[in-house]
Design goal:
Number of domains of chain C: 2
Shape of chain A: globular
Order of helices and strands of chain C: EEHHEEHEEHEHEHEHHEH
CATH topology of the largest domain in chain A: 2-enoyl-CoA Hydratase, Chain A, domain 1
Structural class of chain A: alpha/beta
Largest interface: A-D, 65 and 72 residues
CATH superfamily of the largest domain in chain C: 2-enoyl-CoA Hydratase, Chain A, domain 1
Oligomer: heterotetramer
CATH topology of the largest domain in chain C: 2-enoyl-CoA Hydratase, Chain A, domain 1
Shape of chain C: globular
CATH class of the largest domain in chain A: Alpha Beta
Bound molecules: zinc ion
Strand content of chain C: 5-15%
Helix content of chain A: 40-55%
CATH architecture of the largest domain in chain A: Alpha-Beta Complex
Number of strands of chain A: 9
Largest sheet of chain A: 8 strands, mixed
Order of helices and strands of chain A: HHHHEEEHHEHHEHEEHHHEHHE
Distance between the termini of chain A: 55 Å
Largest sheet of chain C: 7 strands, mixed
Number of strands of chain C: 10
Strand content of chain A: 15-25%
Strand order of the largest sheet of chain C: 3-5-6-7-8-9-10
CATH architecture of the largest domain in chain C: Alpha-Beta Complex
Chain lengths: ~325, ~325, ~300, ~300
Amino acid sequence: MGNGYTLEFEKKLVELEKKIEELKRYAEEKGLDMAEEIAPLERRAQELAREIYSHLEPWQRVLIARHPKRPTFLELVSFIFQDFLELHGDRNFRDDPAMVGGLAWLDGRAVTVIGEQKGRDTKENLARNFGLPHPEGYRKALRLMQQAAKFGRPIISFIDVVGAYPGIEAEERGQGEAIARNLREMSILPVPIIAVITGEGGSGGALATGVGDRLYMLEHAYYSVISPEGCASILWKDATKAPEAAKALKFNAEDLLAFGVIDGIIPEPLGGAHRDPAQTAANIKRTIVAALEELVKIPGSMLVEERYRRLRRLGVYGTS
Amino acid sequence: MGNGYTLEFEKKLVELEKKIEELKRYAEEKGLDMAEEIAPLERRAQELAREIYSHLEPWQRVLIARHPKRPTFLELVSFIFQDFLELHGDRNFRDDPAMVGGLAWLDGRAVTVIGEQKGRDTKENLARNFGLPHPEGYRKALRLMQQAAKFGRPIISFIDVVGAYPGIEAEERGQGEAIARNLREMSILPVPIIAVITGEGGSGGALATGVGDRLYMLEHAYYSVISPEGCASILWKDATKAPEAAKALKFNAEDLLAFGVIDGIIPEPLGGAHRDPAQTAANIKRTIVAALEELVKIPGSMLVEERYRRLRRLGVYGTS
Amino acid sequence: MPLKELFNTKPKYVTIKPPTPAPPGGVETVERPEKKEIPDGLWTKCGGCGQTIYTKDLAKNLFVCPRCDHHFRIGARERINQLLDEGSFSELFADLRSVDPLGFPDYPAKLKRAQQESGLSEAILVGTGKLEGIPLGLGVMDANFMMGSMGSVVGEKVTRLIEYCLETRLPLVIVAAGGGGARMQEGVLSLMQMAKTSAALGRLGLAGILYISVLTDPTMGGVFASFATLGDIIICEPGALLGFTGPRVIQQTIRQTLPPGFQSSKFQLEHGLADMIVHRRELRSTIARLLRFHHYGGGA
Amino acid sequence: MPLKELFNTKPKYVTIKPPTPAPPGGVETVERPEKKEIPDGLWTKCGGCGQTIYTKDLAKNLFVCPRCDHHFRIGARERINQLLDEGSFSELFADLRSVDPLGFPDYPAKLKRAQQESGLSEAILVGTGKLEGIPLGLGVMDANFMMGSMGSVVGEKVTRLIEYCLETRLPLVIVAAGGGGARMQEGVLSLMQMAKTSAALGRLGLAGILYISVLTDPTMGGVFASFATLGDIIICEPGALLGFTGPRVIQQTIRQTLPPGFQSSKFQLEHGLADMIVHRRELRSTIARLLRFHHYGGGA
Ligand SMILES: [Zn+2]
Ligand SMILES: [Zn+2]
């Protein structure tokens, strides 16, 4: 189940899985019972998978987080929520297709959902700018979140973005201010905000919709101040040293849990979310439903107070 | 004192004034005492001025309101306020030079001042788009007004705009929504808002910064749902019939006072504001200082309530 | 009489005339089609694809061309029938009548003609009703009444409807169809209706009551730049002409051809104004979904 | 030694290198000039006009070139001296020290070097002081300390300063000079400082306390996209490089020459971010005017 796109380190596994598939097809075609021959191969494949995926390097996990078949925002939404109704536009300049938002039901509770949408193919990627929002995307997200606050609706924010967009127009239209404003305004919205980094949590672009009461990460997602390539370029003047940078940046879910930046790690199916999007979505859903259950009981002003205290704790420093 | 630009109906007067000037210069040059010869001419000029300017047709007053030498926003500000400090930008897309705003002192009281700035020459007019704001101009004004509200500062809005800008980009960037939003937000800002139409009060463009607790008009200003030319084009398919349209639209200060749309008429020097900008400014100042004196005593919530009641009364209709 | 003459040939929009000297900016009025578009013959020619359609079929299809999906303009009563549960509409403030405060040339006659032709007393109907069982306040403009322009009565009816929703906490839906913008014939009093209705919405917003604005062809000028664009949610019907300044005035000012699709529903979606474009077939159910998302009608 | 070699030849900004394969978007770092620009020789060459200036004269002129008005980068202490009433600065939270939470390559050494070279413990000084007699809270970044990047200590100092102003109701002024953005070496903890400082400003704003942000050369990345652009009033020094993504990264991504003046102070004024561009000579008096407009220091 390489999903048509195989990462270097899973080649052996994918080959074995292919063999097993072939054998099964052959047995079916010929009407043979080959269960006894296939069973040990499947056990071997499972062992191999566990072996590979339980010892992944940070960089390998980045490759999983960036996997072209990794479930996108809209895919996850379709699994997790009911009756998603997309709302468009920043009421100002443009509707940014890279940032998607709307209304949805989460087990009988109306919520506002936002997230970056990466494309599935070149055409969609061009239309959605590879899921990289422009300032108006952040502003659309803020509009929808403020609307949610107006109507007392919880906010679920999914994050999967390589970073803020490095373009002339994004600077012209005030990308920096748009991100900053989101940070400030999200910190004072008196409704529950749950954020989940589902893939790439790239610097300011990810943070721009990531302030809330709870922050979770999928197991192989990463959340970083800078892309590993960018970090390697600066440190060693060599972007191909991204794997080393990925190690240095300590941006995997376990690191962030240890730093107190995130509240929990949502497990992925063995081998990554793309190997079973439905299961991935079910895991996310379980986590956010449980968190929401708690958060909706807290009055808005206390939510905001506790959200500030949560941010307030972040940082590691000493005294002279 | 035709100010270098003479309207058709004041030609006779301007010629006479020129003659008097010449005579005075001649007497001075020659060291002659011609006071006795000049005095009756000056009386005649005064009579003529009164005769002309007290029987102006609506269209003639439009011409005065549009006079190229009519004091602009920044000129009036320099007469009325102290220490004006301009603030720029909508924090979003662009700083619109057609809409100017900032902080100033009005007799020891800090206020926020906003207004459209027409140019004095072709170059400035091009830079300021003839004082026609784009959506970001209305948004800058709103930003500054909301900032004023944040700090409990009264707002003085001067209006002099031929109308909203008929351009592709203005539509693309949401001119209609920008105006509507200003109307809604101005109606709930809990600080005193005083608006003065100093020249042209052109439709939605003028209204966009014209919601407040008090609305005044300079004597020859007009405030209209449509430009007289536009009205004539629609009614008679002939824009040159603007003078008739000007009559039909009942948009002079006296009409608007009768309709309850404005709270008072600020007198202009005989012949129009451009004949004595300082005096015009003094008249405006007297009015707004007196109004502000009253308004600052009223708590914000009551201001907003009374502002709504004021708008609520506007309209004339019957019942079946 | 040849069959062809039975058809009402209605332009989709009025033809853009070659540039003539433009009046100074700020003119909010819109080109006015000479004829209303609502079909009243036995057969109707589609303004979108040119197909002739049996009018009864068109009516069954909510006055949307079955071939090209062109959305015909429809009157306020037809719209109410399409949107609300049968017989649930209860009109409010029906007794308000426009007067002629300016003594404006021809205005009383125009009003009379508009009333006779449309069968309405003014360019909007407001009231309460139910949509999929959910109670709401509803205002529906009618582009056939003086181009759906807003004078004192339209402004007053909209404002009273908003105040009614504020008192009763009913959600508010307004279907705008106002190509005429602020009604010239009532001068600055029409302009003031923009401020009045917007201020009323300011109070509704502070009270946290939902307002859904539906923009239909055409909505321009003072209607567009007030209550129509202040919805918490803004829905456009497909293919509508929506904007502030009318295309002809812009064309005359800039003396360039306007880009294709300028001020269309799609334009407003792409430029960030509209939340969505909704086919007339889906309008009722979409509004119902939105109302339930906001806990009207008892949730999911 | 020839006279020329006494001069520090400092580039105004670093040279833009020809495009190389761009890293994926979202890299916030900025090109780093190899040398700091603050003059320390007897003579100084102007980065604007190339003129050599007697450094003492330059200092008297607030480190602004008397010939071309080029604003030299200045350190935090010099800035405080220029802005505040003499001897009025009282530093707060001076004991905070950066640690190396990630065990990041070379970070401790870099910190040490930065401390030695700048004579500062971190990239910002915060405290209280008086400006034309008006008490205020002041934070001043120093671009010479690891490019003025924000790690946990900078974020914590800014946050504590904001909280101090919230408690004491002092107005807040922060002079940003952070070309380094969020400090890479502390990983996501640096990113979190953006959220932390912005959230603190959210509370300050709700309390109605004035915050003036002064943007100086260079301010980029995570500093720019947090407290630096959230001022009630935003002032830029002339000729500064101000933006989110660094010009080299953009250049590498789009593979086009950037327009002249891109991300300059003027660019930020024209694009609606900055309230004003203020010459260093006028900065102190302008801040005083702003404070008085907001009724600090007893009005007019
Ligand atoms: Zn058709
Ligand atoms: Zn120089």
